[in-house]
Amino acid sequence: MAIQQYTSAGTSQKQVPALMRKIDWTYGTVNLDIGGGRYDLATEYLATQGVRNYIVDPYNRSLEHNLNALAAIDARGGSDTCTLANVLNVIREAQVRRGVLEQARDNLKPGGRCYISCYGGSLSRVGGRSTRGWQENRPLGSYLEEVRSIFPDAYRQGAMIVAPKRFR
Question: Which of 16, 24, 25, 135 could form a disulfide with 49 if both were Cys (CB 3.0 to 4.6 A apart)?
Fold first, then answer.
């Protein structure tokens, strides 16, 4: 597995990601929030929507926490949804971004959906160091081809990419 040159530890924000408020949540479902950071604000928000949220973040959560979250998802046969809120844009290496997308796919139930948002930074399309780590500086649409390499039916919907997992 490839390793990030610049960790994402400093990118955790103490706010509910805007992505969470753009999704039409279904009561009683389970979401896997990959790269969800160190705060539980998204989990608290999703609870008000009747959604159980599990956060996995290798840089902001303990190994034990991450393993327990993934075990809970696995025990129910996968998550109904998965969120990547401003995750891909803070990863320099394409191989690592691919690994994150594969983790999302592998933990989703067939027919589940992965929702992706990416902060565009300067939109220069030139990645670089930021005060918190790395920033790709790319518009959301520029990630669609990468997402489709894992989720072939992915599409853009406003300020997010929706990536359905196919029924095999």
Answer: 25
